[in-house]
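assembly run, all chains below
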Amino acid sequence: MSKELRFLIVDDFSTMRRIVRNLLKESGYADADEAEDGVAALQKLRNSNFDFVVSDINMPNMNGFQLLAEIKKDDKLKHLPVLMVTAEARKEDIVMAAQQGAAGYIVKPFTKATLEDKVNHILTKAGLK
Amino acid sequence: MSTPAVDVHQQIGALTRQLHDSLNGLGLTEKVKDWAGELPDAKSRLSYIARLTGEAAEKVLNQVDQAKVQQAHIATQVQHVGQLLAQDAAGAIARGDIAKHLSEMEQSGRKLDEHLTEIMMAQDFHDLTGQVIAKVVNLAASMEEQLIQLLIQTAPPDAVANPPIPHEAYVPALDGPVVEPTGNPDVVTNQSQVDDLLASLGF
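ok done. output:
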C-alpha cells in the first residue's frame, strides 16, 4: 500500500476549509491540515511535510498568489503541487496562476467531482499516485 | 426688512455654499462621485447575496426531503428484517430474503450519503457571500468615515468632536466572486471555461 498523502488546505473561511477537507476524505485522502492564510500556510509547510496544497487566492495577510510565489522560490517546497480553489474568475488571474506554477485552478462554487478529478489528475501527473 | 421666507432661502443658500466648500476642502467631491458609482455595484452585490443564500436554503431543503425518503426506506427494511428473523430466521437467510433487504439498505445508505454531501456543498455560500459582504461593509464604512469628517469640518466652533477611529477591517484586494458575469468577456462562468483556457495555454 502506498504512503498516505498529506494535504494542506489554505482558506480564510473555515466553512470552506471544512468542506474541502471532507471532500478530500471522501475521495480517500484523509490526512489533511488547515491554514487560514498564506502566512500560516508557509509556516506549516516549512515546519512539516506535505504532499499537496489546496489554496484559496483572496485571503488577508498573504494571498494565494503570494503564497504560490513563496512556495515556488523555496527549494524545499517548489516540488509541491498547488491547486488553486478560488472565486476569482478573471481570465488574467487564471493565466497568472498557471504562469506562476499552479498545478490546477478550480473556480468556486465547484462540485465534489471537479475537486476529485483535479486532485487525481495532478497526483498522477506528479507521479504521486 | 426681509421676510422670513427670504431669510430661510438665504440661510439654505449659505449652508449649501458651506457644504460645497467643505466637500471641496476635504476632497470629498470626488469621493461622492465614487460613491455614486459604487452604490449600484453594492446593490448588485446585495442581490447576489440574496440569490445565493436563497438557492442554498432551497438546495438544502430539497436534499433533506430526499434524504428523509432514503432514511424512511432504511427504517422499513430494518423492520422487515426484524420480522423475518423473528418468524423464521434460517428460512429467511436460506431464501435470500435477508440478503435482499440488506442490499436495499446499502443502496439507500449510499444515496443518503450523497444527499449529505450535497448539503455540505451547499454551505459554500458562506465563503462566496462572505467575500461580497466584506466589500459592501467596506463601502459603508468608508462613507461613514467621510461623513463623520464632514460633520467635524462643518460643526460649530464650540462643538466638541472626537476624530473618527480609522477603519482597518480586511478589504479583499482582488475581485472576489463575479456577481454579474453576463456579457463580461474577461471572466469565466464555469469550470469548463477554466479548463479550456488553461488547455489553450498548453497547461
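The domain at 4-155 of chain B is CATH 1.10.287.500 (Helix Hairpins).

Chain B touches chain A through 31 residues (CB under 8 Å).

not gonna interpret more than that til we talk
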